Amino acid sequence: MKKLLILALLILAPTVSSAAETQGSGANPYTECGIGAALFPTIGWAAALSNIVWDWGSTALSSALTTPENCNAKKVNTAKLILETLPELEKDIAMGNGKYLTALNKTMGCDATAQGSINANLRASYVSVVSDKAYSTKSNIDRANDLYHSVKEVISAPALKNTCTVAL
Q1: What is the pLDDT of residue 27?
Q2: Which of 37, 50, 108, 136 is the most buried (most CB within 10 A)?
Q3: Which residues have a Cβ under 8 Å from the Cβ of 119 and sit 6 or more positions away?
Q4: Burial of 130 (0-12, 13-18, 19+ CB in 10 A)
């Protein structure tokens, strides 16, 4: 048994050290990966507890290390949508509505009755991002990242909290 454990540690050591280099950049393995995240996608504490009870979190940890893109696919889809449709999405945000903004709300699983408030708050929030002097010199990836964080801020606000199934 000890030999098997040592062998497993030797095999995983390079993976763990490479993951440590990008610490904080991936998914939270206990709440966004593994069996727990599949059973409780919107209840972080329940997902974490489920992962620990099921197999001490080993499935969640291994999936976070080997395939982080599969952890909480809805977050990945939201980020992908923002990056791939950034110019059109920014236009929709400026207007306060549009098909790309509707797609963003659907991707995040937002309640239809809250979409008007989400759109209005996102429009107000994103003005400060666009009006920053450095905005015009940023890459599309940096601009998409800024928009992602603006969306996260808006849907995390107390008035809109829990109106979307995806907690960015």
Answers
A1: 61
A2: 37
A3: 93, 96, 97, 101, 105
A4: middle
Sign of CA dihedral 108, 109, 111, 115: positive
Residue 96 has pLDDT above 80, yes or no: yes
Q: What is the three-class DSSP state of 110?
A: strand
Let me know: does 33 contact 27? Beta carbons within 8 Å.
yes
Asked if 48 and 77 sit in the same domain, the reply is: no
Residues 78 and 152 in one domain: yes
Do you know the residue count of the chain? 168
Whether the model clears a pTM of 0.85, i.e. scores above it, the answer is no
pLDDT reading at 167 higher than 90:
no
Q: How confident is the model at residue 92 (pLDDT cuts 50, 70, 90)?
A: very high
Helices 140-156 and 73-84 meet at what angle, rounded to 10? 130
Residues 83 and 148 in one domain: yes
The string of pLDDT tens digits covering residues 121-132 is 999 999 999 999
Same domain membership, residue 100 and residue 115: yes
Residue at 149 is within a domain: yes
Residues 99-110: tens digit of each pLDDT? 999 999 999 999
- Tell me which residue range forms the domain holding 143: 73-156
Measured in whole angstroms, how far is the alpha carbon of residue 156 from the centre of its chain?
12
